[in-house]
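Folds abound. A case:
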Amino acid sequence: MADKSNENIQWIHLASTVETLLKLSDELRPHLILTTGGTGISPDDVTPEATRDIITKEIPGISQTMIAKSLAITPMAMISRPVCGIYQQTLIINLPGSSKGCVECLDFVYPILKHAIDLIQNKRTEVDITHSAMQIKTNRKHHSCGGDDHHHHHHHVETSNKGERLRHSPFPMISVDDAMNIIFEYANKMPIIDKPLTECLNYVCVEDIYAKEPFPPFRASIKDGYAVRLYSDPSHEKIYEIIGRSDAGGENTNIPLMEGQCVVINTGAKLPDSANAVIQIEDTQVHEYHPTKKDGLDEKSIRITTECSMNQDIRNIGDDVHIGELVLEKNVRLGPAELGLLATVGLRTVRVYDKPHVVVLSTGNELMPIDASSSDNGKIRDSNKIMLMSALQNLNILNVIDGGTAKDDETSVIQTLQSAFELADIIISTGGVSMGDKDLIKSILTKQFNATIHFGRLQMKPGKPTTFATCEVNGKKKLFFGLPGNPVSALVTYWLFVVPTLKHMMGHIQPHHPIIRVQLNQPIEYLDPRPEYIRVIIEWSTKSSIPIARIVSPDNQCSSRLLSARRCTGLARLPSKTDVNSSFFNINRDGLGQQVDCLLLLDI
């Protein structure tokens, strides 16, 4: 009987564990479930059986790795029975019950977790990037030159038997939309803070805000004129005695009125409780004057020259805003009108999303300060830094930090990046991400900062080598944007990727640029193999039913020529030549060009 009872208990324990795993997987749909305990050989150890009951694919390599590496630490690993596998799109891993063994086994399998989850979730772009990085590491391992790999071989440098540089980027080319989706996956909202209302301009409120006070908080006059107590008999002669005045913000505002009496009143002033109408001064005549001024008034009585009605020209309590009314929805940017509204209903502080600290740095031996005198020694002024820092300030980013300029050597790049990561949430770098042998950024990010490069090549022009990476420094996630060194490429990719990311992190409900349909002011006769973002000025004309996009510097929009971005108000997106047929080039003979989509560059 005891054996039968133990079997029933084990069966109940097993069923309960299966139910728990299914509930977690089906309701939460997590990427990963880690179980702890129940992997031994005692009667109550049923976690492996429960896991095996629900998984559709077992991954024995993970279990075998944990056992093999644990055996190097303790012989007790021989009696551990972990099972690892996949249920739907969830990876399930059994870990030991002891805290020491649990942490050790998690450390053993940690390096493959992200890649395994990407495979299970069918994230092809992330999988391709990992495979490319693995291929690079393989190339380094088999073709390293002596023991100096650390100094001479980087992500952008492939060493062959002849020591040749890499001729093709190891990163898959992805679309702009895919790149933006990847960025948003890693760009979390900023922390929520309480901020004084006077300091909230251009912040985004976190929560719906309801009025705790009515407005106006008293009955107020809409006009300059007289607050009157109307005669109850409409046929009574409309002559009213003036017995005082009620000024906006004045102290003596509740003067008792009898029928036929009134007080002088200003717009916005509080009405006496007994007043039941306001008559504007234009609808009155002076009936009688005082011999001498009384309380600053020389008018003794007035005659009303028009018909009047009860409660005319009176703002009652709460007419504008009543108690409990929703005055501002969450995720709204706080502009002047919004701040005025919140002040009106008595708010002193607001819960808002904080703003990120952003470092802008440059790379390259060729750069010199913008205030340097002209020289002919192969150096150019660092226009990118002032351009991007100004753009960030224009976006109302308060903490924009000059991260300096890194020389084209590993030590300088490492030191510059280290300082930047310690100072900021987001790092924007220009240069050093292309295919040159001095482009060190990507390899240093992965080797020195254990960063994950999420993409390093884009299907767009300009801006193909744009790079996005994340890493953790001092326990905090950092976002890294590696923009191309050519100034137009840097500015276009800043507009396309950095601006929406910052807005998303700061809580904007619509972080992306609005897209409109425009007609180019002149025909396009050639398309690039990649979608191209050309700089335009949006105009309106009677020649077209939709806005006209005038191409800036149409004869030369190369990525080094900032003249092609001056006064730019939009980015017109030209399709790649493989995305259109010959009809794209068939246009009307009115001098105008094709119709294309255009990103409006607002508030940037």
User: Anything to note?
Assistant: The domain at 17-133 is CATH 3.40.980.10 (Molybdenum Cofactor Biosythetic Enzyme; Chain A). The longest strand covers residues 284-294. The chain has a mean pLDDT of 88.
